[in-house]
Amino acid sequence: MAKEKTAILAQGSKKEKEPCLILGEKQVMEAKLPINMNRKYQDSFFTSLFKIPKYRRAAYLLMHPEDADVEDSEFENIELENVFTVDMYNDVCFMVRGRLIILMEHQSTLNYNMPVRVLLYVVEEYKKLLSMKKYKRVLYGSRQIQLPKPEFYMVYTGKEECPDSLKLSDAFEGKASDSFLELKVTVYKEDNVKGVIHEFISLIQLVKKAVAEGKSMEEAVREAIRQYQEGFEISDYFAQRKDVFQLLGEAITWEEFLDLRDEANASVLREELRGEIREEVTKELTEQVTKQVTKEVTKQVTKEVTKQVTKEVTKQVTKQVTKEVTKQVTEQVVMENICKAYKILTSVGANQTAAIQAIMKEYDMPEDRVLAILQKS
Q: Are 297 and 321 in contact, with CB atoms under 8 Å apart?
């Protein structure tokens, strides 16, 4: 019954649904993150690496190899406040030779709406820039204002196939070639970039692979650091940063929590389903417990009662047997209910981690216990 209702709701009910928000409800998403994960974004592994002049210059030369004579003194770091989305927290922005460079890391499930979000993102930054005295004085004058040219680069460390660039015009109705407005985000992946950016991506992928093979996060991070300690551009970073182990570990751990973004589009549906599923499961649980307890208690009590002589002994045995059988049957039903809830959650779009966390919260049960139950099913 619950599955049927889920399918009906998934196909679309008569109730008008709220529009999907492009910006992803940042405040709501952040509130779901554990306190220790909801930290200042500029302290990430990605930003701490590419804000170092040596690596910032190396990244820029990958974008513009023709500027081989660029000096560190020509770079000006720009601090960006990310007000739009929780999964664009890793960004580095700087101005150099008339260019405004925004370099972002994107770990979670590939989002083709990134150019739209970057558009909103950079507009806010230009608004701040234009409020500066040197621009504000000429903005409304007749002389052509000179703004730094924006360039957008995304370092993608996710698992999906990803194009070499994402374009804003792909989001517009009609032909992309007819668009009067364009914004392109160049995507750096492991197979299309070299140097320090390639090393960064390979390092992250190395940790992910080790974890996927069954190693703990700590083992995976330590092994990756050992492999990159010597002979790479990034090696000096490991020698200089004492907190690199923590930063690299958090860089991977964040991806698990960023998957919450994928649930954003299904959040309204989940809220609609939550009450109905709870009611349906409670009803089925009650019926199942009643049948099983009645059957088991009847069998056990009957067997014990035949061996007793007095009414008092019969009452005591019945009470004891009922308690024990009820406990056993209830535990079994709870296990079955957990498996059913897991299937329902994953069927409506929740990933495995989010489903397990929801079950842990609902049944106040530790993760290892939930995993053990799901493995037996």
A: yes
* DSSP 8-state code for residue 184: E
Please tell me the least confidently modeled range out of 38-42, 317-321, 339-343: 38-42
Q: How far apart are CA 108 and CA 157, in angstroms?
A: 8
185: which strand partners?
152, 166
Among the residues of 140-266, which ranges form H helices?
A: 195-212, 217-227, 235-240, 244-258
pLDDT at residue 11 greater than cutoff 80? no
Which two three-digit tokens encode residue 102? 């925004």
Is residue 279 helix, strand or coil? helix
Give the whole-angstrom CA distance, residue 212 versus residue 209. Answer: 5
Residue 364 above 80 pLDDT? yes
Residue partners of 64: CB distance under 8 A and separation at least 6: 70, 99
Helices (H), the chain: 2-11, 26-32, 45-50, 53-63, 114-130, 133-139, 195-212, 217-227, 235-240, 244-258, 267-305, 311-347, 352-363, 367-376
- At residue 139, does pLDDT exceed 50? yes
